[in-house]
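Supplementary Note 2. Why include the ligand at all?

Several targets in our set were suspected to adopt different conformations when bound, so apo predictions alone were not considered sufficient. For every target with a known small-molecule partner we therefore ran a joint prediction. The input for glutamic acid is given below.
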Amino acid sequence: MSNKTLADLLFPHIDKTPDDYAALYPPRKLPQGARVTRLGPSPTGFIHLGNLYGAFADERLAHQSGGVFYLRIEDTDEKREVEGAVEAILSALDYFGLHFDEGATLDGDSGEYGPYYQSQRALIYQCYAKHLILCGEAYPCFCTEDELADIRSAQEGSGDNPGYYGTWARCRDLTLDEIQERLANDVPYVIRLRSQGDSARYFHIEDGIRGLLSMPENTQDVVLLKQNGIPTYHFAHVIDDFLMRTTHVIRGEEWLSSLPIHVALTNALALPFPVYCHTTVLMKLDGETKRKLSKRKDPELSLDYYQKQGYHPLAVREYLLTILNSNFEEWRLANPDRPAEEFIFSTEKMSSSGTLFDLDKLNDVSKEVMVRMDDQEIYDFLLRWAASYRDDLMPLLAGEEATLLRILAMDRHGDKPRKDLIYGEQIFDFISYFFTDHFKQIDPWPELIHQEEREQILAQYLATYDHSDDQTGWFDKVRELAVQLGYAAKPKDYKKSPELYKGHVGDVSTVIRIALVGRSSSPDLWEIQQILGEAETRRRIEASYSSK
Ligand code: GLU
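The joint prediction is reproduced in token form.
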């Protein structure tokens, strides 16, 4: 049977060759060592932390090497497609500061290597399929679902490996006449690879993250084009990554098991290999055990979560670098003030055995990022966050810029800055006592100071309160009050001889703090009073003892 006759019969409309496409999409003119990476999401509507983790590795690899990071939408499965998904992908990545140099956009493509929507590349895939038919490396398969089910149950019976391969592959050796007859009768067909693999033979390939991999060759006659002429992921990505001149394919570990197929396809098409980099799944500690982050159980898997909670994108980026590269934390300690972009990211330093994702650790990282950020930037960020997710806070935040800047600056700029600020929701909660409607007592009064005593402290405090006292003058007065009432002037005096005192000055200021702030710990109380203003300060102190 002539392969050429078959190829022309199946693909009469294809007149280009793979060489034509290779010439149309020539090697990119980039500096030596530049990496070309891509994100290839399917538009299913759910973009999660794992995508961001991979995308961040892509972005770093490309941008630190003067290369290109592009977006390709893998929309070959119409059934799974969700409206608005591309917009969601673009806006989520944009939020986290991941910007593509080329690729799919909302209104089409930008770049010389498109189309970047796989659904628009059918002719390209068909050209490559025609080429494989021509070389005898592929064939049409007319098996119906029922026939495939028969093959499966026969394999179960005989204990053979499942799949379409070897002697199980009924359509592998159809004659041209048999094929022509089926085509004449409009029998639907797929195009399959004519596998040359042998499962007793191993191939070796260097994974950018996992090092040298050895796996048995693929033996399956996998589907290349489905009945509608649309390719499978396997076939499409091999062609696209070549034509888009991708150097590194960073993708989830779920693709590792189909690597033998991709190697076989790349070989059949005589294409160069990109560097495959298979990331690990994101895990979390659930009690004592580590488990995969789950869409159902873990809201933090969804990227919305970070936007809604109001994590600053820089904090998330910084945290992702921490889990992406094992040497990042050390670098950060040595270079606290350098932008994270200066860190040299490498796939070799990525974990190959499960990456632990931990919200507490993210919060710790965020504290460090926020403490380095200036007040104005935090304020602007809070406004943007509130405008999108907490409209109810806008009236409180928007009109009060000068006050808010003062609040955000509290105790953050000295030698030992407080690291109180973490993310939008938490920051608002942390400063909420400044807003009269949100002020409430959260911590209990100190247990050892009974009510009468407490009221006495507060009444006397109010009697001596002078809003124009400076910080030292104010604290001297608090100390004086403490001593008058039988408390030690210094905690260490109390520690030395507790029998001499009711407590120490700290206990007295805790009472005042709870009256003003509703919590037993806060930034500097004098500064808080100055921001609250004299009237509100007096009102809160008074209210706290007259109402109880
Ligand atoms: N479309 C594939 C997915 O959604 C992308 C895999 C890859 O990056 O090659 O998982």
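The pocket of glutamic acid is lined by residues 40-42, 74, 233, 237, 249, 251 (CB under 6 Å). DSSP finds 23 helices and 14 strands in the chain. Comparable summaries for the other entries are listed in the accompanying table.
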